[in-house]
Amino acid sequence: MQTFHFDPVDLPPGIPAFRAEIRAFLAREMPRDYPAEQKANCWTVYDADFSRRLGERGWIGMHWSKTYGGHERSALERYVLMEELLAAGAPVGAHWIGDRQTAPAILRYGSESQKQRHVPRIARGEAFCCIGMSEPNAGSDLASVRTRAERLPDGRWKINGQKIWTTLAHRSHLIIVLARTSPADEKNRHAGLSQFLLEFDTPGLRVQPIVDLVGAKHFNEIFFEDCIVDAECLLGTEGQGWKQVTAELSLERSGPERYLSSIALFFELLRVVGPSPSESVRQAIGRVTAEIWTLRQMSLSVAGQLARGEDPYVEAAIVKDLGNVFEQALPPLVQALADDGIHLEQDSDFVRTLALLLQTSPSFSLRGGTREILRGIIARGLGLR
Amino acid sequence: MSEQRQILADTADRLFADAVTSRRIEGFDAKLWQQTIEMGLPLLLAPEADGGAGGDWDDAGAVLHALGHHGVPIPLAENMIAAQLAADAGLELPSGPVSLATRVEGALQQAGTRFDGKLLGVPWGRHADAILAVVPGHTVLLRRTDATSLRHAHNLADEPRDDLIFDNAPAVCGPASDGTQASHLLALARCAQISGALEAALHKSVEYAQTRKQFGRAIGQFQAVQQQLAQFGAEVAAAMCATRAACRAATRGDASFQIAAAKLRCNLAIGFATSTAHQVHAAIGFTREFDLRQSTQRLWSWRTEGGNDRAWADVLGARVCARGDQFWADLTARDDAVSLT
C-alpha cells in the first residue's frame, strides 16, 4: 500500500528576489488605516482598487498564457505570491476566486471567444468572479443541484433555479453556474450536469444578500428566473459538468489559504506576548510553530505536484482538512492562553482579531468542501470506499 | 525521491520485511545486523574516505522509515549517527555495533584519555561494542567492556535501553563543535522511525477494517470508521511530510529548527494514530500475540526518545518568541535558501 505523496519541493531560482519585490510592494501599497482584524481571513476581504493594482503589476493570472493576458510565470512563483499576500493579510478577496479557479476553468474548458472575452479582464483585476455551485438543497451533495438549463429551439439556453452562499456575488461580474441539462438519473447521478459562464447583467438574474452571524454582508442568494443566455454561455461540454466541477474543486482546495486564514492571530499573539513570555505560552507557541511549518511543507509539496501537472486530489484534501483543523483550533487556543487580563470587550487589534476568528472560523471547514466530504475523499484514497 | 534512493529504500524495506516474516526477535537481531553491514547501512552517513557509504540524511531517512515500519530490533539509527559524529570528530570508528549516548552524566579526565560517569538509557547498550557519547566540547568513544557496571533496562517495546557506569575508563575523544548535534540527529532518526511505524499501524488498521465483519459487513464500510481512519491517514501524512522535509534540511545544513518542528509534529500524530489503531482493532489488538503492538509500543516509546514535546516546544517557542515579527521572514527564508544555491 502506497500511502500518500508529499515529496519535498525545491523552489525555483529567483524566489528570494521575487519575495523581496512582493514585500516591497506590500509595504508601499497596503491600504492605509487598514483594520488589523481585516488581515484575518483576508482572502474574503474585497478591495477592487487593490486587486486592480495587483493586476497592473502582473500578479493576477501569473502563470496563464500571454495570449489571454497572463504572464507565463511558474506555478510555484504564483504560490509564493499567494502565501505572501495571505501572510501580510492583504485584501485580495475581489480577484481571489477568478485567479484561483474561474479563469483556469475557462482556459481549460472554454471556447476561444470565452477565453478572449473574459480572461484578460480577470487578469487585469477588472472582472471579479464567484462560484455557482451550492444550492438550498445541494450542499455537500453537489450532484443533487436542481438549477435547470433548458435548450431552446434557437440554440439559446433558459436557466431557472437558485444558488446560495455565493461569496461576493453582489460585487462580481462573472459566475460559473452548475446546472442540470438533462433529467436526474438515480443510477448515474453525476451525468446530465453542465457548466455555464454568465455575466451578472444577464436579465432574469437577481442577487439578494445574506447577513452572516457577525453582521457582515459577503454571501448571497442568486435567483435565475427564465434567464435566457446565448448558446455560447455553455462552458466546456454539455453533460461533462461533474468532471469539470471536480477539476475546479481541486484548484479550490489546494492553495495556502486553506491553512493561513487564522495566521494573523498568531502574529498578533507573538506581538502581544513579546520576546520572553511564560513557559506555558512559550511552549504553546512552539507547538503552533511546528504545525504551521508542517502545514506549509505539505502545502508546498501539493503546489509542486500541481506545477508538475499531477493531480494530487487526495493530498489536497488532506492539507485542507488538517489546515482547517489548525485554523479552527488556533482561536480558542489563543483565547485560553490570553484569558489572564484580556477580555473580549476590549478594543485592541489583538482582541478584535481574536473575536472575529472565534466567530468566523467554524465556517472554514464548510467552505470548499466540508470536513466530512474531505475525509470521505481521504478514506477513498485509503481504499476504504 | 531519486531513483537511487528509491532502490536503497526498497532494498532496506525487503530486508527488514523478510527479517520480520521469518522470525520475530525481541532484543537484538544479530543475523539481520550482519546483513545490514553487508549492505553498508550502519556506516551509511560516514564519508567514503572513512570507509562509509557517503550517504546523506535523505538516504538515512528512507532507510530508517523502513526500519520503523517493520519494527526490527537493531541499533541501526544509533550506529548511523555515531558514524557521522565520529567522522566529524576525526575519530576512527570501531566495527560495531556502535550505539549512541545522549544522556550523559560525567566528565573526561586526564586530558581526555579517561572517562568517569554514567551513560543512561543507551539503546542496545549490552549489544554494543562501543558507545559514542557527547560531553561538552567533545565527542567520546567508550568500549562497552570497559564499563564497571551495566544495568539492563527496556523501553515499552522491549528494545534494550541500558545504563552503563564507567570508572576511570579508557576513552578516545575528538572535538565536538556543536554539542546539540547528537540529540538533534537522534530526534531526526526517531522521526523517520516514527513515520514508518505510523504508516505500518495505518496499513494494519485499514486492512483489518476491510476484513473484520460486524453487523454483516466489513467495519471499514461504516462512515464512522472511515472518518476516523481518514483522520489517522492525515496525521500519518503530516508526520511523513515533516520528517522528509527535516531530512532534506539536514542534508543541506543546519536543520535544528526543522528537526524540532518535525519531532513535535510526529509526537502529535502518535496520540491520535495509536488510539485510533487500537480502537479499530478492538480487543485483538490488545493481545501480546497480535502484531499491532510492535508498532504502537514503539511509538509510545519513541515519543519520549530523542526529546519529548515539552523539550522541543520550549526550544522552538523560545526561538520564535525571540524573533517576534520576523516569524514569517524566517520561515520562508529557510526554504528560499535552497533556490539561492
What does this structure look like?
- The complex is a heterodimer of chains A (385) and B (341).
- Chain A is an alpha+beta fold and 385 residues long.
- Chain A has three domains: 15-127, Acyl-CoA dehydrogenase/oxidase, N-terminal domain (Butyryl-Coa Dehydrogenase, subunit A, domain 1, Orthogonal Bundle); 131-240, Butyryl-CoA Dehydrogenase, subunit A, domain 2 (Beta Barrel), CATH 2.40.110; 254-381, Butyryl-CoA Dehydrogenase, subunit A, domain 3, CATH 1.20.140.10.
- Helices cover 45% and strands 14% of the residues of chain A.
- Chain A is built from twelve helices and eight strands.
- In chain A, the strands form two sheets. Chain A has a four-stranded mixed sheet with strand order 1-4-5-8, with helices on one face.
- In chain A, strand 2 and strand 3 (157-164) form a beta hairpin.
- In chain A, helix 8 packs parallel to helix 10 and helix 10 packs across helix 11 (349-360).
- Chain A is globular and about 75 Å long.
- The two termini of chain A are 15 Å apart.
- The model of chain A has no long low-confidence stretch (mean pLDDT 95).
- Chain B has 341 residues and is an alpha+beta fold.
- Chain B folds into two domains: 3-175, Butyryl-Coa Dehydrogenase, subunit A, domain 1 (Orthogonal Bundle); 181-340, Butyryl-CoA Dehydrogenase, subunit A, domain 3 (Up-down Bundle), CATH 1.20.140.10.
- Chain B is built from ten helices and ten strands.
- Chain B has helices at 3-22, 30-38, 57-70, 76-88, 181-211, 223-252, 256-281, 292-302, 309-323, 327-340, and strands at residues 98-101, 103-109, 114-123, 130-135, 138-143, 149-151, 161-170, 172-175, 213-214, 217-218.
- In chain B, the strands form three sheets. In chain B, strands 1-4-5-8 form a four-stranded mixed sheet, with helices on one face. A four-stranded antiparallel sheet of chain B has the order 2-3-7-6, with no helix packed on it.
- The radius of gyration of chain B is 21 Å and the shape is globular.
- The mean pLDDT of chain B is 95.
